[in-house]
Sequence to fold (258 residues):
Amino acid sequence: MQPERKKHIMAIAAGVILVLTVLLLTPAQSTAQTPMPSVSLSFGESSSPKDVAVTIQILVLLTVLTLAPSILMMMTSFTRIVVVLHFVRQAMGTTGTPPSQVVVGLALFLTMFIMQKPAVEIYNRAWVPYKNEQCTIQEAFSVSQEPLREFMLRQTREKDLALFVQIADLEQPDSPDNLPLTVIVPGFIISELRIAFQIGFLVYLPFLIIDMVVASVLMSMGMMMLPPIMISLPFKVLMFVLVDGWYLVIESLVKGIH
Fold:
């Protein structure tokens, strides 16, 4: 029985080796026989200046698309919303709940909701005339700045604008509408961060009171080795749910920006 068993084992091993050899060799042969597609980039002479202008417009569009995340964060309400939501999560003590992807996604969709009106104005006043060949791309770009300028100036303090006017060594304008975007955008960012931190401070206060009360009770009971966060976390979550905290936070953010 032993020799027969050895023969069976040798036959099975030979079969496994044969199957593995076929599986390993078949892709290599098919890859060698199948032609691979190739991509080439070439530069040639243009027959008209219009072709060059279209190429430059494509390059500018690709550049704008790469800067789109920065434009979204710096020239909209995204910064204020995401900072406040992170403050809420830190104040509750749930550092991983909700996850960062949920916080950023909520901030993104709230930003889209808030910026809907400026986006519609840009579409009607800049994109539609440019699409119908009623204006040039330079005129469309200039017109598209106006709704964003109006939105940012409503949320920016004059003190912050004056700071960057002074740093840039510019003359005092007659109206904030005459300021360039290089002054309005950093002033808007500073104002948004200031408001976000103010809201974050107000959000922290009730949770801080709960932490202090729980810590005092544990100290009076002599339970100094028990972390207060383990006891205060359920109470903070319960309070946040009872007062409908997410509704209040989102309401204050959206109405404060509108």
Observations:
- The chain has a mean pLDDT of 76.
